[in-house]
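Recall from the previous chapter that SMILES is a line notation for molecules. Here it describes flavin mononucleotide.
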Amino acid sequence: MKKVLSLCGSARKGGNTDLLLREVARGAEEMGASVETIFLSDLAIKPCTGCTHCKSHEECIIQDDMPMLLDEVLHSSAVVLASPVYMGQVTGQTKIFIDRLYQLRRGDRSLKVDGSNIRGAVVATCGAPSHEHPQSALSTLRVLFRFLNQPKVLELVGTSLGPKGIVQERTGLLEEAYDLGQRLAT
Ligand SMILES: Cc1cc2nc3c(=O)[nH]c(=O)nc-3n(C[C@H](O)[C@H](O)[C@H](O)COP(=O)(O)O)c2cc1C
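With both inputs in hand, we obtain:
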């Protein structure tokens, strides 16, 4: 059975990012996949200290939930990483997770894992109406798949999504999320 792992970088449960991810999950489950959703804010993920231990060793020296999370990622057939735009970028908890992916690359810049069989998608939500606005956050989200050696990444962008739950009024966007879930599960 395919397993879709959904990583939510928003701490706002029932918020726009969460609701879009629920539609992604519905689409994937409809295709027979199992879906696990994790809120990054529910985990203990400490910031990278830049010690560079990971450049000469396989593991990161920091003891927290990151090894468990990476294990979940590597045992998934598809991963979707989502974040709202906060001050022009991904949320703090999402960036802390992304920084910690530094451990997946050796000192000679070779990758320690091959996730090229893992389907990938990124989702960004923001209050601004412009499609350009979330581009910087999207490129940060894509780093996960770069470090997994997966160049093909699907994308979903929700603009003009200020108030909590307003995405429920955007049927086209919810449909896009559902379709994304179906594509990740095929
Ligand atoms: C601290 C904070 C910073 C934000 N910064 C931006 C921003 O820079 N650009 C933008 O378009 N929206 C910004 N927003 C709006 C959120 O991106 C938007 O409300 C999004 O839908 C929130 O997702 P959520 O409902 O999943 O929490 C910000 C919201 C918060 C709380």
